[in-house]
Structures are given as structure tokens and as C-alpha cells.
Amino acid sequence: MAVASVALDRARAMMNDRLAAIWTDAILMPFLDISFQEAQAWLRKSKSPFMKVTSPAQVVLAGAVVVGAALTDLVEPIRVWAGPSSLATSSLLEEVSFIPQVSATTTLKFWSWTGGAINLLGATTDQNVYVHYWKNFATPATSAGSLVIPAIENYIAPKIASLAMASVGQDSLSAVMAAMGLERMEEVVSANRGAAR
Amino acid sequence: MAKLVREVLETVRALINDEEAIMYPDFRVLPKLKIAQEELFNRLILADHTITFVQSSIMTVPGSISDGGTTSLNALTGFPVGFRVPMNVFERPSGGNSSQFILVGTASFIPIQSQLSMIQFWSWVNDSVVVNTPTSSRQVLLQYRGTPLATTGLTDDVLVEGAEIFLSYRTAALMYSVQSAQDPRAGLMAANADAALQVLLRTMTKQHQARPVRAMAYRGVR
User: Fold this and answer.
1) What contacts A43, CB < 8 A, 6 or more positions away?
2) B10 at A interface, C-beta within 8 A
3) Model pTM?
4) Measured between CA atoms, how close is B66 to chain A, in angstroms?
5) Partner residue facing A101 (CB), from B1, B90, B217
6) In this complex, is the C-beta atom of B57 within 8 Å of any C-beta atom belonging to chain A?
7) What is the mean pLDDT of each run of 10 residues along chain B (222 residues)?
8) ipTM for this prediction
């Protein structure tokens, strides 16, 4: 996988500043951040398997009614399982709009995605909960950090250049770079679509 | 966790070429970010996203023997601050357990009928959630569409995962537009914000999380 400096260097080349005389890493990193996050939103919208993951066991103590606080990369849950031990022996919980007003039993039974949290009915015994969810990768903190996602630099580089040009009022150049980025996004999505056609 | 307000402000300043915060310190950018947040939550409510679904804490409707009386839940202790649109109301005897909550019926107006020991009906009139006043106190739960409290601190997060892209562009558009409505960069940033919002809204599913609603090309299997 490419590192952030690859995207930064390409963006500088597009802006005729290969030696980083004007557009230093420090100036471009915020643009890389927003481009990287944008690209991930596109990939999730396109249902890229790369953006999905199953959590490790999340221990939900008896009586607890929320899970997922430890999943710092969680964007949105897809399915939730729960059971006394491993995922293989867990049961798929039923998704509801709001948790029903019923008494807790030994199983969790229900979950709801409301208010940005995975809410549970609560159980009378400790449970292991597994969440299948859409995730988000953190933006690399430095130019040496990995971009993690295959081919994503193809979109990020022109998008960084577009945002940098826009910030100094070079609107026509910005529009050209933005169009180039959108074109490349199809390649990025295609590279991360998995086995499904 | 969603990004922090401070991080979004830094992105906004990068977009408007003021990384050093010389022209636009936090106190000048923050009010525009709050406007962008309001816009975001209005759109999420309109789109019926479950992130705006909230359940109140238990409130107590005091009993009264005034026949035909009504009580506004909005005036009760514990009524939620971020309330926007009611969805369901549940009631139970005071001090009951959770399985005793039953759904209260909804009506355009509270029916004109003799007073009961139960609430039985609620209606949303004059921007107020009104119920039949019961003869003895009842406890109620309100499920509603709402907005979280406005973000106030730089170390608060922006509440919606992935929303920082829309918020950054929209705030930058507002920053440009207050300088000059003719500034083409305001339009450019607004267009970026609209595109980001569409992606965000299409990415967030509306209940049935496992249903393949993201009907897009190149998608994988779920």
C-alpha cells in the first residue's frame, strides 16, 4: 500500500511544485485528511468489502444496555450477534427501531441503532457480543504513514491538488483537478470491490 | 468516534487558506460550524435516520380530577432539550416495571371524553406533546426525533461519524459567503458540501441495517 507521501508528491507535481517550495507537507496534510475520509465514504457507499469488519468479542456485562464504545473505528453497524462464548455459537439479534419495553432474560434478543449507539435490551447474564460493521480508517498522521486502502492515492492526489488550488482562488485549476479525482474514484472503487461483480 | 470540533476547524481553515488562524480564530469559525451542524441534523431528521431517534427518560404526568383536562409533556421535568418531532408515547402506573409500559394511542386532537385513570391518547398540537390528564399520576416515556445539544467545546466530537467532510466544506462555504456573496469559492465549497452530504445520507442506512439499500455499482456482497 502506498504511503501518504506518494499522494502528497503527486499532488505537488500536479501543482508544478515538485520541490515543495510552496506546498509543504504541513500545508497539504489537512487536504489529505479530508480527501482520505471522502474516499472512504465513497467506498462505503459503494459497499466495498474492504470497509467491513467483524469485531472481536465485546463483553457486555449483565444489565448493560449499550455496546460498541470500544469500537473506535465503527461507522455504522450491520448485524449483531450475542452469546455466552464464541461467535460460532452466538445468535443473531433482532434489529428494532427502539428497544421494546420487556423484561430482560438470559439472552440479549434485540438491538437498535439509535442516537449513534448500539443499544441492547440487556441480559441477566454476561454476554459476548460480535458486531459486523462498516469501519473507518484513521488518516495517517505523517507523510510516512500508510494509506492502507489499495489504489486510494489515485483519487487522493488530484483531490488534494483541487482543494489546495481552491484555497488560493485558482478555481479553474481546482475544477480540473476535482474532475480528475472523480474519474479516478471509479478506479479506486473498482480496485476495492472484492469478488462480487 | 467522530472527529473533534478542533480538528474540523483546522480543516476549515486549510480550505480557506488560513492554517495559522490569523484571519479566522476559533471564535469566528465556530458559529458557522454550529449552523452547518443544525443543517446536518435537519437533513438527517428529514431523511428519517435512526441516529436522530432518541428515547426520553421516564417522566411523571401528575394526576388531577379536573374532567377533560390535558397536560403538556413539554412542561414536565425531564422533557428532553433536543426534542424535535414525537414518534411514540408509552405509559405505565407510577412505580411500575418496564414491561408494564403500554403504547399510548395517537390522535389529531385529544378526544373529548370522560377522564380515565390512564392517559390513553396523545396528540402533537401547537408544537406541544399533549396527553389526557389521568385521575392519578402515570409515568411516560417519549420516543422522538431529536438533535443532540449544540457542540460547544473544541474537544467535543461532531457527533455523526463521517459528517466532518460535509461540515468542513459547509463551514468553509459559509465563511466565504459572509465575506462576499459573489465569491466563487463559496459556490465551490457549497457544491463540495452538497456532494459530501449526499454520500453521507446514502451511506447511512435507515433501520434494517443489514438490508442492501446501498444500490450502487461495483458493490460487494454483504
Assistant:
1) A50, A51, A149, A188, A189, A192
2) yes
3) 0.79
4) 30
5) B90
6) no
7) 88 92 92 91 86 91 84 94 92 91 92 86 93 93 83 80 92 87 83 90 68 43 38
8) 0.72
